[in-house]
């Protein structure tokens, strides 16, 4: 079966979704600034989980489920890209610590610019031979990620009076764009299932379950922080993965693996967020 790259309309929606979400994250009020949050033990564990433990989990799952080389590189691209674009919204649903969620997503988005390309390059050496222009990739991720984050912080600092309004607009826009993306990719769902096969789908489900378990175990005793880290860790940055795939170095099956991960992981996390929202510190 011949596979084509994702339609331009889907790619445009993905990039707009990435921009509006990151812009809304930067506009969020947080008593803990990113540098202060970075110094905390919780944030150190969060970075360890997202940039080391989850990518290693991804490698282990590609072996366990015998994924093909192209599906593996798409799967590991997702495993290497933290900062799920709906994690902040789902953290609200779960009644998690939003100040921690804002700082976490902000820092994951920044660190992923440098760390994610190198992780993908490292993984690709042992899986499939691809010519990954790593410095071009660094430039692309910087161009996609830094402007909305810095624009949001500039607006927050200089135009404080309209920050709340802009935050609501950008947050609503990101949700609307995600719904649009879901509709546009709905026709790919059957193809996703065919290309991923049972082992690809099982690997995505297992990865999500493992992300919840690892994060819950290593996030300490505070329930609200546990909720945030479990959701934020399991929801990978599919928009950045799609941007990487758009460079034409991963292959069409890898693109479908990335989209398939989003289609499976997102509803799982929504159900998970609703379920854990009913758990309180007193009920433990």
Please render the helix and strand layout as text.
Layout: H1 8-27, H2 34-38, H3 41-64, H4 69-79, H5 87-93, H6 98-127, H7 134-158, H8 160-184, H9 189-218, H10 223-234, H11 238-245, H12 252-276
Q: Explain this structure to me?
A:
By secondary structure, this protein is mainly α. It has 12 helices and no strands. The chain starts with 7 loop residues before the first helix and ends in an 8-residue tail after the last helix.
Which class of secondary structure composition applies to the elements?
mainly alpha
- H-E order: HHHHHHHHHHHH
Please give the largest β-sheet.
none
Instruction: Find the count of extended strands (DSSP E, 2+ residues).
Output: 0
Instruction: Give the uncertain stretches in residue-range form.
Output: none
Distance, first to last CA? 51 Å
Q: What is the 3D form? A: globular
- Which value, in Å, is the CA radius of gyration? 18 Å
Helix content: over 70%
Q: Residue-averaged pLDDT, rounded? A: 83
Helical segment count: 12
Range of strand content = under 5%
Question: What would you say about this model in short?
Answer:
The chain is an all-alpha fold and 284 residues long.
Features:
12 helices; mainly alpha; 284 residues
């Amino acid at each position: 079966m011949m596979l084509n790259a994702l339609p331009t309309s889907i790619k445009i929606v993905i990039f707009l979704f990435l921009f509006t979400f990151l812009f809304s994250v930067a506009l969020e009020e947080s008593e803990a600034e990113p540098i202060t949050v970075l110094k905390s033990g919780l944030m150190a564990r969060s970075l360890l989980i997202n940039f080391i433990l989850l990518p290693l989990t991804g490698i282990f799952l590609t072996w366990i489920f015998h994924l093909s080389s192209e599906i593996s590189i798409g799967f590991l691209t997702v495993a290497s890209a933290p900062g799920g674009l709906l994690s902040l919204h789902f953290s609200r649903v779960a009644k998690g610590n939003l100040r921690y969620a804002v700082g976490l997503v902000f820092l994951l988005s920044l660190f992923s610019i440098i760390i994610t390309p190198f992780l993908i390059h490292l993984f690709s050496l042992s899986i499939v031979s691809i010519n990954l222009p790593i410095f071009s990739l660094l430039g692309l991720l910087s161009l996609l990620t830094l402007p909305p984050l810095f624009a949001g912080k500039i607006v927050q600092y200089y135009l404080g009076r309209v920050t709340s309004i802009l935050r609501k607009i950008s947050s609503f826009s990101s949700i609307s764009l995600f719904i649009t993306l879901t509709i546009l990719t709905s026709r790919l769902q059957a193809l996703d299932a065919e290309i991923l096969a049972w082992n690809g789908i099982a690997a995505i489900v297992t990865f999500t379950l493992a992300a919840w378990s690892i994060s819950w175990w290593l996030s300490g005793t505070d329930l609200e922080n546990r909720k945030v880290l479990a959701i934020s860790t399991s929801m990978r940055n599919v928009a950045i993965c799609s941007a990487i795939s758009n460079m034409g170095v991963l292959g069409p099956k890898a693109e479908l693996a990335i989209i398939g991960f989003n289609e499976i992981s997102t509803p799982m996390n929504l159900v998970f967020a609703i379920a854990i929202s009913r758990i309180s510190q007193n009920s433990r």
